[in-house]
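In the laboratory, one determines a bound structure by crystallizing the protein with its ligand and collecting diffraction data. In a computational setting the workflow is compressed into a single prediction: the sequence and the ligand go in, and a structural description comes out. We illustrate the idea with guanine.
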Amino acid sequence: MKLIDGKATAEAIKAEIAATVEQMVAEGRKRPHLAAILVGHDGGSETYVANKVKACERCGFRSTLIRFEDTVEETQLLEAIARLNADADVDGFIVQLPLPRHISEQRVIQAIDYRKDVDGFHPVNVGRMSIGLPCFLPATPAGIVELLGRHGIPTKGAECVVLGRSNIVGKPVAQLLMQKHNPGDCTVTVCHSATRDLKEHTRRADIIIAALGQPGFVTADMVKPGAVIIDVGTTRVPDPSRKSGFRLCGDVDFENVAPICSWITPVPGGVGPMTICSLMQNTLLAARHEIY
Ligand code: GUN
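The predicted complex, in structure-token form:
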């Protein structure tokens, strides 16, 4: 078994981005600028956004964090988005999800100028991805594909089973892996809560992408020996022995699955750091107008 070190891979990519940014600055161009809107005080979202701000510093980007209380009205949020759309100084921005229930995530996402949608959630970017046009790729799927590529893991013709059908991970990663490029060219099956005989599917898989948000869901009896396991789970499980009061738990029973697979991502330190890296890559592309 070989461990896929997402943390080290992400560090290498951020160093590459930082070098590009310093070159841009030396040429008299401005630093890329990412803005983030954070609504409320959800622990997970606070951590993710803090990590995104930190990654911006590491890459030499400017960052702006705009905060709202969770009582904010949708119209106020849409006004903030309109201001960011119009602000030529901001290259790209994200609205951290989830949002409070009284706010429509789809209305918010669709209010973002797709040319600044560095999360790749706007229907224009989703549609362009699905037909293979240049676009901002969603961060987690792009990070997964980059991890496979940088580790030289063969995907052509591979049977790939995706567990989970979310708009953020399951659906887009399935699309990327079936596209005609490298890494890609997989035969993809997407499984979800209504799938019958789940184990029948997973036991055939050369690559399993676990993105359901159920700690320890993928057990050794579901895995073909030699398979590649990508664990996207990041459930926060209470753990009083930690300073933070919780630990991150993946969707894979790592202890029992790791010995039988060829490659596996740990949690934490696997897909998570790559996700933030993809956001930085998208922001750099936005600042350099390489897509739009
Ligand atoms: N919530 C969980 N993942 C993401 C992400 O990639 N982007 C945003 N904006 N919110 C998220």
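The domain at 139-272 is CATH 3.40.50.720 (Rossmann fold). Keep in mind that any predicted model is a hypothesis to be tested, not a measurement.
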